[in-house]
Design brief:
This protein is an alpha/beta fold. The chain contains 24 helices and 16 strands. A hairpin with a 5-residue loop joins strand 15 and strand 16.
């Protein structure tokens, strides 16, 4: 507090005990004024613009602290290979430049040459990215740079009350200080100063300088005490935390400050795990690449993944070290040779494996620790599978599918995931440069084919997959349920493979299902010639059952005829020399896109979607090496979900795999399976625009919670007092309402977290309500997420 200013503005010092602040060491200490002596004459005012008048050591010209009448007592492994690199964000070959907000692209405003300074002076953005804090958070929170919040919302004071209280407490404190300083409250506030300082300091010839310093210290302590007392009364700390601190933090963060790097043993850019694990030379090479700006987020995640494999197999350490020393940041490349995607459209954090999709709204229905935090998805969440429901245009493709697919493709380049994306040919899920394999079914220019049998050599397994694809949506209505169709197919596939060493092509299988005598006789002859008598008996059993009314072959043949069309003549080949793509390759970090022939072949597209889903659930669960996360993205799962596919999706959780399904409405799923579908997936997402019927399903699966309900009751006041009745009559004439008294009842009730009506009518555009569950069982309640930020 400016004590000199307060001294200059004194209205008078005729009051006993007014003690101005010393302006410098006095020539002699002001002696105490004995009781009963006349009041001192006030000192002259300072000249405008000059210093205050020097303190007069004599009592006739300057007041001194009075002496009281009675003095109180003191008491992975990876892939080797060179890779070209041009600088931050640009790569030779398949790589590309990172998109906005991507650390790998390093194209933000803090990059070299940006407003932060010249490229030669600013450190590489990679260092700031890799050193950024990533605290442990509940599922769904964007960890990069996150500042955790308490689990429960503290009692929040209204802003107007907080500001008015702080202002009033400040004015009261200022008033108390002014009254004490100007002597209006007497000399009592100076007693501690007189108690703890010797009288000799104030006597003639005493230690005047010590008394001046003691007076300064006492004034400061007294002012600090007032600040503490009135600051607590006015809630100044809360005012600082709510408005002042965020403003200062924003100004501080936007400045050109550069935090000092952490110590080498805690600096991830120095690769301490490699140094402690026996590869100091490789760590030094990578640290030099990072300081030079030649290391990207994809390189960092990829090499860390390779180092994880080395720790599991120490004999690979020399090869790993040699690879890093020879290739630097381009070590352990993906088989495609790419070190980045051609373009990025979302924000990714490959150190945490997350992709940011939006921001949790600051809504009372969201948990307090999630409000205002970034919302992100990661493989540990997709490992429980995700279902997104929303009408066309709600943002399922642009706000969910594309960012997640982009993230999984990036993580595939780091050796962490294998991803298969299935959509219509015009869906434009991602550019061709994102993928290693692009299968365009029904288009002659497709460079790859699809294996109809999922790469298996077991006839029973192949029959189960194919039967699920062909008539899985009708299995519940067929006689015998879902068992007869796989059995009928196995009775044909087994003999054919035994006779020819391969499974039949689509035309050959259709002939067998139709019961063609020529095809069956030729197959029987081939079996007898090779001595396959057991398989011949299997074929005879099939012929005997073909005449029954509940035989499934007729329906299988009808559905298979949709694939036996000229548009698909060059696909699903099984002859010698053909090498169709099989989902058995999911134990490699592959990026696959399958384009379905949507136009003109809608039913065939649904069959193929069920085929890919059945093959994925079978192949992902049957992998020997489950260290890679495998994910299937089914852009439109209409008429694809069946009872058997739901059982397969349930098995994926323990196989480090998952699926992402999108639906326009739950009506695209059989009614008997809607509740089962919502219970099977661990992550559920309802976009703005869902119908009330769909909202009711989500509200049911999200359950209820205990909330505090306030019931307000107004009761009319009736009085017999004449004057009071006159006042009430006048008030009623003025306001038009009777005089009432209000009573409030607070009670705990159980209510739905999100009701069907709120989901259908209260969600803003480009918002969604999403609940998350990890494979370990961690979960979050439904969150309202703004997908635009």
């Amino acid at each position: 507090m400016d004590t000199e200013g307060a001294h200059d503005g004194r209205r008078g010092t005729g009051h006993p005990g007014a003690v101005p602040p010393p302006a410098g060491p006095p020539a002699a200490p002001p002696p105490l004024r004995p009781p009963g002596s006349p009041a001192p004459v006030p000192p002259p005012r300072p000249v405008d613009g000059g210093a205050p008048a020097a303190p007069d050591p004599y009592p006739v010209s300057r007041p001194a602290p009075p002496a009281p009448a009675a003095r109180p007592g003191g008491g992975p492994g990876g892939y080797d290979g060179p890779g070209g690199y041009d600088g931050p964000g640009r790569h030779d070959g398949p790589g590309g430049q990172g998109g906005p907000g991507s650390p790998g692209g390093f194209g933000g405003p803090e990059g070299p040459g940006g407003p932060g300074g010249a490229a030669a002076e600013a450190p590489p953005p990679f260092l700031a990215w890799v050193r950024a804090p990533r605290p442990e958070t509940p599922p769904g929170i964007w960890r990069f740079g996150h500042r955790p919040r308490p689990p429960e919302e503290p009692e929040r004071i209204p802003g107007r009350s907080l500001l008015s209280g702080a202002l009033i407490s400040f004015l009261c404190g200022w008033l108390i200080w002014s009254l004490c300083w100007n002597g209006y409250l007497g000399d009592y506030w100076l007693w501690p100063l007189l108690l703890f300082t010797p009288d000799s300091w104030r006597a003639a010839g005493g230690n005047h300088l010590a008394y001046v310093w003691a007076a300064y210290i006492y004034y400061g302590l007294f002012a600090a005490g007032l600040i503490v007392v009135f600051g607590r009364l006015g809630r100044w700390p809360e005012l600082y935390r709510r408005w002042v601190a965020p403003l200062l933090r924003r100004l501080w963060d936007d400045g050109e400050r550069q935090a000092p790097p952490p110590p080498p043993e805690a600096d991830p850019a120095e690769w301490p795990e490699l140094r402690s694990g026996g590869a100091p030379d490789a760590a030094g090479r990578l640290a030099a690449e990072a300081r030079a700006g030649r290391l990207t987020d994809v390189d960092y995640a990829r090499i860390r993944r390779a180092w994880t494999g080395v720790r599991g197999r120490p004999e690979r350490l020399p090869a790993f070290t040699d690879t890093v020393l020879r290739h630097g940041a381009a070590a352990c490349l993906h088989p495609s040779g790419a070190r980045d995607l051609p373009v990025r459209t979302a924000r990714h954090d490959l150190a945490a494996g997350q992709v940011r999709l939006g921001t949790a709204a600051d809504d009372r229905r969201n948990p307090y620790r999630h409000r205002g935090a970034g919302f992100a998805l990661a493989p540990e969440l997709l490992g429980t599978s995700l279902l997104a429901v929303g009408p066309p245009g709600a943002g399922k493709t642009g706000r969910l599918v594309r960012p997640v697919l982009e993230s999984l493709c990036l993580q595939a380049l780091t050796g962490r995931t294998a991803v298969v994306a299935v959509g219509a040919s015009g869906a434009q899920l991602a550019p061709d440069g994102f993928f290693d394999v692009v299968i365009r079914i029904g288009r002659p220019g497709s460079a790859h084919d699809l294996d109809l049998y999922g790469g298996t050599t077991d006839p029973d397994e192949a029959a189960g997959i194919l039967a699920e694809a062909l008539i899985g949506d009708l299995a519940a209505t067929q006689p015998g349920g879902a068992r007869r169709a796989p059995t009928a197919l196995a009775q044909l596939l087994g003999p054919f493979r035994a006779a020819h060493g391969r499974f039949p092509s689509v035309p050959e299988l259709r002939e067998l299902l139709d019961g063609s005598a020529t095809a069956l006789d030729a197959l029987r002859t081939a079996l007898r010639d090779t001595g396959q008598l057991a398989q011949a008996r299997e074929l005879d059993a099939r012929e005997r059952q073909s005449g029954r009314a509940d035989d499934a072959c007729a329906l299988l043949a009808d559905r298979l005829a949709l694939l036996d069309r000229p548009a698909f003549a060059d696909f699903f080949a099984t002859a010698e020399g053909s090498r169709p793509f099989s989902l058995r390759s999911l134990d490699h970090p592959l990026r696959v896109r399958i384009d379905l022939p949507e136009r003109g072949h809608a039913e065939a597209s649904r069959i193929l979607a069920r085929l890919v889903l059945a093959q994925f659930t079978e192949c992902a669960a049957g992998r020997a090496d489950r260290s890679l996360f495998a994910c299937l993205i089914l852009h439109d799962a209409s008429d694809t979900v069946t009872a058997e596919s739901l059982r397969g999706i349930q098995r994926l959780r323990s196989a480090n795999a998952g699926v992402l399904l999108t639906l326009r409405t739950l009506d695209d799923v059989p009614e008997a399976l809607r509740s089962t579908l919502l219970g099977t997936v661990g992550c559920r997402m309802a976009f703005a625009g869902v119908t009330t019927w769909d909202g009711a399903r989500f509200a049911e699966v999200w359950g209820k919670e205990w909330v505090e309900a306030r019931d307000v009751t107004n009761r009319q006041i009736v009085t017999d007092e004449p004057l009071t009745r006159v006042v009430h009559v006048i008030r009623r004439l003025v306001t038009g309402r009777a005089v009432t008294s209000e009573s409030v009842t607070v009670r705990q009730v159980e209510r739905e977290r999100w009701s069907a009506s709120e989901l259908a009518h209260s969600l803003p555009p480009e918002h969604a309500v999403v609940s998350l569950t990890t494979a370990r069982g961690e979960h979050t309640p439904p969150l309202l997420v703004d997908l635009r930020s």
